[in-house]
Amino acid sequence: MTTVEAIRGMGFHAYGYTCDVANREQVLEVARQVKEEVGDVTIIVNNAGILRSSRLQDMSHQDIRRVFDVNILSHFWVLEAFLPEILKRKKGHVVALSSICGIGGVAGMAAYCATKFAIRGLMESLSEEVRELGCHEDIRFTTVYPFYVDTGIAPDPQFRFPYLFSAVSPRKAANIIVEAVLHNYTEVSIPKPLMFCTQVTRLFPDTVKNLIMDFLSRKSQKRKRYE
Fold first, then answer.
1. Can you give 174-206 as a three-state secondary structure string?
2. Torsion sign over Cα 76, 78, 82, 87
3. Which residues are designated catalytic?
4. What is the pTM of this model?
């Protein structure tokens, strides 16, 4: 509970709960505790995620299931627990952490990419459902697409120009997310210009896109050297 202690040390109230978000029953139970001890939740941040970096044919079915349980099904359980009250109050904000891997597939990360693509679909669909209810002006949705945040979850992405693709600190990432919520951004990448770059890149034919990725990737340079 280091984060809770840090917040309290700044003179604010803070509460902490331990929960396996992949376990629906635990999520619903913690949601009940939160409502009793804290009150209604107005901002949801679905941030839980794990990474199994392995080619699909080398992944066990247990690993695949666990990645989906944590990375995407947990979003559904948290929304099940807290979204009804937001809809009832017709006011709130839902934030979901996807990834740049939710925009473009990456070799060796098929299960992870699939869950991050799913988050984008979930958020867009949910936003449309709320729009049809007529309360979309006061219930907002923000999907976040980080590239490489220095949390230890992912290995060095191995790009040729590290000064352009360097790791972002958790604090800086959090500041970008808070800014996105305050400005009601629908989507934001970390770093922010990366969303535009990925969208432009995908306008090109696959051969051009592949050449760009091979040029940027240090892994591709090593592979060509040994071929």
1. HHHHHHHHHCCCCEEEECCCHHHHHHHHCCCCH
2. negative
3. 112
4. 0.83
